[in-house]
């Protein structure tokens, strides 16, 4: 569906404005799709991202600052997300033995199992995206160019 139809707007100030609005609309749509995919697992997109970061470091623990640094959504509250995951038994927090001010965060076995299942669903959604590899490469280059402003 064209952005004009989706948001019921016929004119834009420029093609650049249209592109930005289209990007924002597509981000919202994609977030909604991912939210629906993760709902059966009882986790949010941000929690999924934290689990992926922790799995990437596994079996070594992560610090909260490392998690925050690597998160896709920089405005997310990493402390709150980690606590919610801890209450679900998906991560554990321990005081670092060498630095008592540091908290080590480690994904649990239960977290790894849930992440494996959720990642399969997310992979299937990504692979169903109606772009071929060359289009995906082109889109990636354009998005990276845009962020390089």
UniProtKB/TrEMBL annotation:
GO terms for biological process: response to stress. SUPFAM superfamilies: Winged helix' DNA-binding domain. One of its GO terms (molecular function) is DNA-binding transcription factor activity. Residues 1-148 form the HTH marR-type domain. This is MarR family transcriptional regulator.
